[in-house]
């Protein structure tokens, strides 16, 4: 319940406590962050908590350029148009130095567009759409998290090792689902020309008719299933699939399902043996991650979620970028962020100069049941830089104006 | 009207009814409940298409036209349950009718409030509502609403006026007043009036001619004394027990 | 062929779930004529309360059944609370005003649920018997889905017994046919309404709790359930229980087979069904024609020109608005620009809804079509902003004319729901036709040309267009056309009898409203730099309704006041608290109960007090 109460009491607004500002001399560097706090609370609240933790950490170490960080958050209610309006508020009224945030891809793209148009720096944390740094990429937009392409490519790589030849796909009917399926099919087919895709299902996001969807997939007699459903859709799908035996003796590759945000609610019905991307949480025993996890637990009395990792890394990446730029002047920050290396609880990463994509990596593994709860096993961390296409390909994807 | 017929699900509501109404004439249509008066009315007014027969207005067939087309050809009507434009003043109700009559509805610029104001006031004066012109229709007494309906109908400058139970719900003294007013207007404008009415005193008082309908068929036609004496009419009315007094 | 039977059974299970929720909604509507937006919230509460109860009970079938019944009782009590505290105060308000109150309840329940149960979805752990299955056509079919298939007809049968074998049921049926008649008979209407609301809410809660073994308690239930439930109720015919049952079967089965044949149809299937049914059966499958809304016509007060003092006030406000860029910062200028768009959005809806008598639940469709017209022209043809601003109203007007042909023949809630269906179809097209519209990522880069790019110029353009169009709309309402439109609304029969073409008057009103709204959509796109399917979403349509109803239907200034109040309130709340939905919902409920004729309507009443007989 700690999380809940935090959400309720932690109204939008400046999160940096006044007490933290006293030590440093200069005016704070302001980060204006916009996210779907009311529309997607399960993911965004642990994320915001971790951002707050990271801001405190940075300030405790003396801030950036001798100035403390200050975080101002806003709720976009899941609507890109609201995000653009609030970006204007943060920039013009709150005078923030950096824009950050977004969970939904269309919000991320809208903010990127705003940033390009108004020549402001925008660092997207969570949005997954490839377009954000490729087709619709621009000079002022950076993105931290591994994109749909990166997540799908590692699953395709794992799936190619399986004997399954007849594959079906099920994905929410919107951009994330569509590009997830597109990349998986393309990359798997490239590795395994003998693979066939024999059917697909496209339930509306948040409204899956799970029984009918499972039945339709079952009727296709697949050997492998690629799933992009998440959240409540995933819960309903897994329950119907379990009862109807859809997953038995079949291979399943599933995007994001290893994230505790989506795996935990499945409880003792969490599927076993699915190949998933996700976040093993407190099982990660690197010193950096242990420090992060214990600080998070200490502050919020909850385990860190995947959103927490992203939020924490986001703030640290911004701090590193500004430090490298040596200024909060926008053009200098763009240059500073390009190629900046920063530490995350998952390991070191950087914002690539070529496409401004972060190289935060992907945890891939298999699902299993431990103590009646789903966990990731046999997982490994793959650095994001190893999941991206070659530089020529990337240059071809990005518009010339984005340099 | 020639040989008008209408059936509902096999029941003949009106069968083969023919009659005529002359300019300036008050023609009453009476009959017990369920005799087919309203059906007949709605066929003349265009609310219901007849199964057979024809309606001629000044020589032109208007059979089966919609209510709007029939209205535009010069048939006005009032309703049993009063229907006025509640969001307008009394005067605006009449102005609306005059605007419609002049085909000025599809105008988007000039304010309507000043159009045909004098004509509307003149009509209101004729029906005795001049003093109420600026009031909302919602606050009018029931008798005044009936007068307003009359004025709205007249705003369309009809040749034939259909009045469905014009005095229903009114006090006896008001009934006579309204129908005398109608009588007067009919004479003055050469307006043919066809009306249904439950109150026999009113019927015999103001009508020039009376039609009696029973089970969809015309059983008698004539002036007041003739109808009073008609054995078929007496049988129908005594048989059903209904005489006068309306609802 | 093996798969037909399981797919059919799956469709039947879906149908049962739909029916449980829709049955309560249709009973409530039949008696109280309230378009209860909060019905989905009651279902959501049923799921959460059910979760809380069932996780504390032993996991045997008997305890499960008991827990489900307790949940239904609990939601029934919540229904009574909502009815007594909120709805009872607004029964006498003009039609559809209660909708606003129930929408306030939706917002409050969203945040209250989040606060009580947290953000994470709560699945009910399934004991073994709930995971069981039977062999059907060589495959497994869930035992619980068979239970669901049985529950639908059982509930229908029980409701039939209540409706036909008890005095209370007789009253409910009578009230469904003719509310005034029942009131005239001396029945205690308040108690009848409260009990009906309790039954409806209990059924909603039952539906929510029974969904637990297949789904989870989560914060998205309210909105996903309410649209489906409305579709079922409307397709079946408002107030008709058998109709709701047949419609549930139709939709459940079509959905089960539809996704096999056309997997991507999921976004739009139910709305396609509704549109087709309403086009061919304007009162739903088993609905009766609605009685001519007598009270609505009588409730509309006389529309009069604004008093001179108000005109002065308006003129002063306009001068201040023109001068605003010299005082307000850039951000406040964008908020004011949004307010200008909101004025277009609300006045255009008011045009067709107030004087036109056609309450649209899908007004965002025109907004979106205008926005996409401008965005697509720019994107594919490089058309400059002035051309985009011209094309938007033209495109929206043309589509409105095509679609209006179907709409104007309907009335009341059926008309509203057909507009909703068309809006959803437009939304689905914008969402799914990725190659052209960019799908949910939208069209980006829709910016004004350099000369118009500063917030100040953008604002002045928006102000000029929105005030200009609002004045034009006002002008039309006071012109003969506006009178005729109102005449057609006040009494269609009377209007026809003086020769007015009611259908054409309404169609033209729809085209004008659509065009004006489309212009608003284009201005908005240039202000935001993009066009997104969210412009056409249901919540956006609801916002238009909120603005119009908040301001008041009966005055020309109402929608303007409503647009300004809503935009200002929403902006202020979103920036100051995470609980903005709770506060906004509470403010809406308070405004509704305090000013049942809207803000402008209440101001007008106070102004006129003592000046009119």
From TrEMBL, chain A:
Species annotation: Muricoccus nepalensis
Pfam name, any one: Peripla_BP_6
Name this protein carries in UniProt: ABC transporter substrate-binding protein
Database matches in InterPro entries: BCAA_transport, Leu-bd, Leu_Ile_Val-bd, Peripla_BP_I
Annotated Leucine-binding protein domain residues: 28-366
Record flagged with keyword Signal: yes
UniProt keyword list: Amino-acid transport, Signal, Transport
The keyword Signal is annotated on this UniProt entry: yes
Gene Ontology BP annotations: amino acid transport
UniProt family annotation: Belongs to the leucine-binding protein family.
Transmembrane segments: none
Signal peptide (UniProt feature, chain positions): 1-16
Automatic annotation (TrEMBL), chain C:
Gene Ontology terms for molecular function: branched-chain amino acid transmembrane transporter activity
Subcellular location: Cell membrane
GO CC terms of this entry: plasma membrane
Superkingdom of the organism of origin: Bacteria
First-listed, main subcellular location of the protein, grouped into a coarse class: membrane
Pfam families xrefs: BPD_transp_2
Membrane topology value: Multi-pass membrane protein
TM region(s), chain numbering: 34-54, 61-82, 97-120, 141-163, 192-213, 225-251, 257-280, 309-326, 387-408, 415-434, 457-477, 505-524, 544-567, 579-603
Alphabetized UniProt keyword annotations: Amino-acid transport, Cell membrane, Membrane, Transmembrane, Transmembrane helix, Transport
GO biological process entries: amino acid transport
InterPro entries noted in UniProt: ABC_transp_permease, BCAA_transport_permease, LivM-like
PANTHER family linked to this entry: ABC TRANSPORTER ATP-BINDING PROTEIN, BRANCHED-CHAIN AMINO ACID TRANSPORT SYSTEM PERMEASE PROTEIN LIVH
Protein family membership: Belongs to the binding-protein-dependent transport system permease family. LivHM subfamily.
UniProt name for this protein: ABC transporter permease
Top-level taxonomy: Bacteria, Pseudomonadati, Pseudomonadota, Alphaproteobacteria, Acetobacterales
